[in-house]
Amino acid sequence: MILTYDVLVIGGGHAGCEAASAAANMGAETCLVTMDMNKIAQMSCNPAVGGIAKGQIVREIDALGGQMGIVTDRTAIQFRMLNRSKGPAMWSPRAQCDREKFIWEWRARLDETEHLDIWQDQADELLVENGEVTGVKTIWGAEIRAKAVVITAGTFLNGLLHIGRKMVPGGRIAEPAVAHFTESITQHGIRSERMKTGTPVRIDKRSVHFEDTEIQPGEDTHYGFSYLDITRDAKQLPCWTFNTNEDVHKILMSGIEDSPLYNGQIQSIGPRYCPSIETKLVTFPDRGSHPLFLEPEGENTNEMYLNGFSSSMPMEVQIEALRKIPALRDVKVYRPGYAIEYDFFDPTQLKHSLESKIIKGLFFAGQVNGTTGYEEAAGQGLVAGVNAAIYAGATTRDTSFTTPFVMHRDESYIGVLIDDLVTKGVDEPYRMFTSRAEYRILLRQDDADARLTEKAYALGIAKQHRHAWWMQKKEAIERIIEFCRTAPVKPKEINSALESLGTTPLRAGCKAIDLIGRPQISLPILANLVPELHSVFDAIPNRKEEIIEAAEVKMKYAGYIERERQIADKMHRLENIKIKGRFDYNSLQSLSTECRQKLIRINPETLAQASRIPGVSPSDINVLLVLLGR
Known about the structure:
Number of strands: 21
Helix content: 25-40%
Strand content: 15-25%
Number of helices: 21
């Protein structure tokens, strides 16, 4: 049987769902191939979305018309805004979700999407003709033809599970691995390597002594992930925290020789920033305890996730060690923690559109590019889906748009993520942090819609209702700022209030905006000092708190924002200097040997991308500039 589509997406995880949704929303006839329709967007590890930098990525996905933010808000059982004690560039939303509801909410979103079909099967062979992808064959004999193919296979490619010395092929616990698909890709010259990740033990809530834990409640705030007016309907639940102890560590260390990480079973590299409990003990031998977080998996289940106890130790060692923690002295587990090794493909062989440099029309997104995390995967998936649709001939709303959709490092964390992957490659599972972005003040969680929604509307992935809401919000923010810019403030009317707030009284009149820069004064406080501002607030139709906060951040940090924008604009000049195909790097003896090797391997598109390649020095960039001048 032969099926024919514009875009074919292989894998129904977070990357695959966003890719399929984006391509279909652009009008491309799209097919999503998944091994199990009942595990669409399965949260294989922690049922949580967001966190440091990851929360910003989800808000960017939402601003671009993606689905992850909406699904998260509708299934969140706890919400928190991390880093509130720091500046707004560091604020990061995080939500604990109901695992099962998350799957079915995603399934409902896909079922409602026009131009999208789901096919339950397993890809077995990539079809390529004359250097261009034409589709795949499946294990059940179907041949699915497509103009563009997006590979989002997660951890399933030659996946191998480890618990102690026991090894079982699998993509996740109790799910089969995909055995031959990697080889059908690498035979065309695409490089693959191995990575490792893991997940903690799952615990029966009924066996926990909560009196020996510290409760960690969520926040009842206006914040969410979607910029649309999505309510959190699920029951809000707390998490709990406690620590390991010396007795726990002794038991774990007694079984270290049976740990796949240390007995030679696992040769691949795991995530440095989410280490297993045994890695923590080896790396920090003097630490007497490590924090653990007990998190619910949903409203109507006793299953709980033990954050911080990722492990592939023998199951009896894991359980014995857990029972040395007072809160878990009678613990019962549903399944032990395990590690998984899997194939990924060298991301330096990709363009910034996430299209392969080797096979035309073939795109990669998610963990197959060497990343870790649902959010990083979903962000890549959306970009790959958009570009696959463009490659397949989908018409954008702005018909003048014909080039691939690429975001720069000053436009989004997703742009930083993809640039890091294709420019630097990976030697460990890549995880996004705010420290990876040099323009953090421009990439705040509060303004992703300002940065991206109009672009997404021009592409066609953001629909009319989203664009209309953004324009309404934009106008409301501008009205607030304009009022503050023009409203006069007189010392005799305000000084006593300023003194009571602990801030310096005025010596002369000023405009209301001049007061916003003071740390003691927020916009709601300013409205009490300048009552006319309340009427501006009252005209905001919905999401009032979010709009007021966005206006305040723009005014309070205007100087920092403008300075960072100027720096980013200077870098854009290098982004505009195209160098791909203009040099024979081997012949440029004025460049260092390492520089020549890296430039040949990466073959950067622009001088700016070349400047970010490890091993390419500023003096090497100056040499290229001189040669370009000649």
